[in-house]
Amino acid sequence: MNAEFERPEGAAADWTIAQDWASYTAQDHAMWDRLFERQAKMLPGRAVPEFLNGLDVLRMTKPGIPDFRELSERLMALTGWQVVAVPGLVPDRVFFEHLANRRFVAGRFIRRPDQIDYLEEPDVFHDVFGHVPLLSNPAFADYMQAYGQGGLRADGLGAIDRLARLYWYTVEFGLIRRDGALRLYGAGIVSSHGESIFALDDPSPNRLGFDLVRLMRTRYRIDDFQQSYFVIDSFDDLLRATAETDFAPLYRALEDQADLEPGDVLAEDRIFTLGTQRHARAKI
Ligand code: HBI
Ligand code: FE
Hints:
Elements: H1 26-42, H2 49-57, H3 68-79, E1 82-86, H4 92-100, E2 103-107, H5 124-131, H6 138-156, H7 160-172, E3 175-178, E4 181-184, H8 187-190, H9 193-201, E5 206-209, H10 212-216, E6 228-232, H11 235-243, H12 247-254, E7 271-273, H13 278-283
Parallel strand pairs: 1-2, 3-6, 5-6
Antiparallel strand pairs: 3-4, 5-7
Bound molecules: 7,8-dihydrobiopterin and fe (iii) ion.
């Protein structure tokens, strides 16, 4: 997926840097608070309760950018995970290696005011607000580690692009069914004001049942809201579907199958919503 790029000066061999929490300015913390309040107001009743509970038990509800050391201490006690700072995107293998060892890598910088609704590289708000709360949930925490281990194996099989789709449509943009309703759990959704409304309420996107192989065939968009979201039944299901599966034969079988476009719907899909695709079409 990502080509070779240089490790910045000052980063350790594993690409980590110090968070240097004391060097955040008042403006940095104010930007976090602004983003936090906007999401915290909207997410009750939309995000899965485990996410909201994670914000609570990790004390992320207190103002300001979290100190990774304190966050890691609480997370370590709950599920054995840590949060470590990196300068930005890291190479795939480095990323997988950290996850396989229950370390979540997070950007330490925060977006500028003109980037409040969209930025390309994950900042501390996306990485920490979006990803960290669910790491307090044992099943999800195990899933993330299994993903990292699977990534290292996928690398050897030339299948990182396939596996990256799994991450995209679950960890970043996943929906979950709860008490007959759909709820958000993907970090890319819960950290985005626009997409946390769009993903649940807009008639445009498809909402389809999770199916591991189907999802690894499906291309995704990085420049706009998703055209399809995939719905899991539970975090235990997600963990089981991946940790207990040998991906090697799946990768081989996928070599003979054409990729699916982001908005495609198949006869065998479990359809929660058949989207109008109005949003996607309006952009072309
Ligand atoms: N690096 N910092 C960072 N954050 C990511 O989410 C990330 C990454 N490097 C690679 C990567 N994600 C993906 O390419 C893998 O999921 C395949
Ligand atoms: Fe992310």
